[in-house]
Amino acid sequence: MANTISEDDHNALPRRARTTLLTASLASLIAVAIASPAAAQTAPPATLPADAPQAAEQDIVVTGSRITTGGFTAPTPTQTIGAADIARNAEPNVFTTIAQLPSLQGSSGVTTGTNSTSSGQQGLSSFSLRGLGTIRTLTLLDGQRVVGANVTGVPDISLFPQLLIKRVDVVTGGASASYGSDAVGGVVNFITDKRFEGFKANLQGGITTYGDNKQVLFQAAAGRAFFNDRLHVEVSGEYDHEDGVPAGGFGEQLAGGRDWYRTTTFLNRNIKTDGSPQYLVRDHAQAYQYTKYGLITGGPLQGTAFDVNGKPFQFQYGSGGVPSKALPGNPAFGLVSGCYAQGGFCEGGDLSGNVGIGTTLQSRLDRYNGYGRIGFDIDPDNELYATVNIAQVDTMNQPNPGATKSGLTLQCSNPFVPTTIQDACRTAGITSFQFGSSNGQLPKNITVYPTRKQYRFVGGAAGKLQVFGTRWNYDVSYEHGENITDIHVKNITLTPRYNAAIQAISLGGQIVCADPIARANGCVPINIIGGAAPSAAALEYIEPGNGPYQHTRQTQDAFNFSFSGSPLSLWAGPVSVAAGAEYRNEFYHVIGDPYGNGIGDGISTETPYTSAYPADPVLNTAGTNWYAGNYHAGRGSYHVAEGFLEVNLPFLKSETLGSANLNVAGRVTNYSTSGTVYTWKIGGTWDTPIDGVRLRAVTSRDVRAPNLSELFAAPITTTIPNFSNSDPNRPNGVPATLTILQNAIGNTALKPEIARNTTAGIVLSRPHWLPGFSASFDYYRIKVNGVISTLNAQQEVDLCYLNNITSLCGAFNLNPGAGTPPYVNLQAFNLASIFTDGFDIEASYQFNLGDVGLPGRFELRGLATNVKNFITDSGVPGTIPTQSAGVNAGNTPHWKLLATENWTTDRFSLSVQQRWFSDGAYNNEYVVCSAGNCPVSTTQHPTIDNNTMPGAFYLDLGGSFNVTQKLNVYFKVDNLLDHDPAPSPQTNTGIDVNQGLYDTLGRLFRVGARFNF
């Protein structure tokens, strides 16, 4: 049958249609029906382990391999999640269900990236295997690539046709020889139902125990066969709305009455030799450089704060802090005795101006998804097909309230300064003072509105042909994918205009901007002392209505041809071969608004999305004028051509010794930017004579090619003063310290990252003495060399001159000659490396309950991942590698566990799920000690009083009931115990939680109904 081939998708039809309709789904409870350890086989029914016996005459699709033939067992471990398991988990986005697998660490979703203005990754659902990052995990749809939803090249899982997903295969080992670049951590492959007939729908609603994140999901799919079952048509559509969880405001009060936020922070004593720890972990940290409505932070009036009415009062510092009130020029200027100068924090006191709480806990989201497939059987074994997937996701997040400013200088004569303060200035003999504010008077907070639209079309043919007496499976396809991302930011200030507007004078009886040039170009003064909202004119001047924006267009065109078969047989069985060729072109073009991008680059005026740059000499024509969200224009493309060959060689088949096979593959790939690279794998399996016991091992060379962002990053130029020229042979007249231009740009000379990936394990699969039981243990080891990472400008120069790393010397010129300023190009280089190892454990047990007098069947399943090491070496001489295994502020706790228990009958089902990860550290480099017992604190090994970051245990509960044969109702409760997250103090009063690891929403309820006709 043609639909048994590893396949498919999408033809190059028109483009653009605006997204709509309903598709895909999840629904009732628990995640992870992790099929079975035998892993690399066809998706089993939800009731069977993954390596349940398959009909020998049928072909199977093995995601860990390109071999498509009956009876083949690949050596690469694969975890499988079936449609029933996705339904039980009842998530509005299938991404969440898959991301709960312990091997997936550091994935991004709607609760991550919400503190960002400029990343463009808010609401982006993308997987990360082994903690290696989303860019090192390859995600496929029916075995084919998907156009990136971000310039890093990662797709958005939420835009897949969810209701038609039959299963998801997660390959937890390197697979570049089979699938190409990015499969360093592994592969996640979504397999759709290509022969669905009938109609089904899912209606779901949800809400948290705090009354927020209200969610409505509607999904529907229909399929029908025509012309004597030769023409198959299916469509699906989906609409998902999630309110999200809004940000708090100022201080410590979270949204919905949540009470776990305590502004936990590392307080740096900056004392390293007194026998006490340098860092103290403390709650209720107070930043003393600003308050909600303004604080004088230096000089004789230091410590004077202002209330909402602009009236001065004495600010209450924490820690019993006393402002230095020193005169400008004194080294203690602006400090507070009793507090912590490094970082500028006190403990306790007036926290009303703290802004870290003002980050959205989950992005608001509207998602539209439409999908269609048409397949025509030329004969019973061959099919022509075309698919279209048009989808859109709109999100909104608040990265922080107001626009915190510190280190401002206000003139005492400013007419907005209260008379009492002007009098105090005269008494103190000063004409200005240092000032900081959270800008609580701004009527609206910064909000970011990313929109991603995906258009994906595939056309192809798949089936079987008899050639020279051998049946060959083939799949040929062409895909065109396009992603349009628009990011709009509202309620954000233009920094140069803000700085001009706060400097006011009285002129002709009116308060005006002090700078005559700014005044002549529309400057309207604002009062940042107190909580009086700026006038409409002043607000329009500092926050132009259009705000920052970015328009990005990405395209992917891919041609694939592959075939597989068994052309000959040996003593141990048929030799299977797979081969193919692929061609892919990737392109992106990004345009930033002129305030952020600047002018004169030839790109910023290319499309109607960009208005004319305003004639305002206050602004910097080079761009970077916004408080945040300074998007810059750029473009780039590359193409890749590759071919692969894979062979499976059975070499042992004996009743006494068992059976074994050798699986080898190789791929040659030519990138237009970096040339040719080779990848390979060699592995094998041994079904031992011990009942149910199989050994497997595989080692591979894998690659990740540099993405469009790394190769062709939009250039950003900033001026860096006091830059150290470390050239020991600098010409006469070239100073040791100078001002440079720092150009952040892409690097087209980047080479692919090269990884060596090894796994080895043992599988116990349904032995006769316990037929419902399966288990596996697999050790993994990954070393990635030439990791693409960025150095700072000083490191680039120093490494060239002082460490003789010549590959960096072409990135700068500190003596370019008359008329050209010295510069350093800030680029990514292939310098770093990553090493990680650990092991996976998986087990499942299934049995009927009839023996104990109960109806139905019971299933127990569990997966665990241990990360023994995760070591990153920057490649910079003089630095030490960092060990982040067990660092719960990151993505790789030592242990991560997922367990599910399901009771299923013909009438109802009940499910329980446990998610757990182990206690860890803030940073493995810290030395824990107490006062009087601390060694000397160093930069690489600082001392701290507490380095324990607790893990978490989450309990989920769900169930369903069949009202009729066609109607099923269900419920799901996530985080039943309402477990609070642990703080991550490194954020220094930001939203101090690792949102990629901990649940920040609390208990969440969902109910729904499924219809099947």
TrEMBL record:
Q: What membrane topology does the annotation report for this chain? A: Multi-pass membrane protein
- TonB-dependent receptor plug domain residues: 74-187
- Cellular component terms (Gene Ontology): cell outer membrane
Q: Name one Pfam family in it.
A: Plug
Q: What keywords does the record list, in alphabetical order?
A: Cell outer membrane, Membrane, Receptor, Signal, TonB box, Transmembrane, Transmembrane beta strand, Transport
Q: What is its main location?
A: membrane
Q: Where is this motif: TonB C-terminal box?
A: 996-1013
Q: Where is the TonB-dependent receptor-like beta-barrel domain?
A: 437-976
Q: Where in the cell is it found?
A: Cell outer membrane
- Reply yes or no: does the keyword Membrane apply: yes
Please report which protein family the annotation says this sequence is part of.
Belongs to the TonB-dependent receptor family.
For this entry, the protein name equals: TonB-dependent receptor
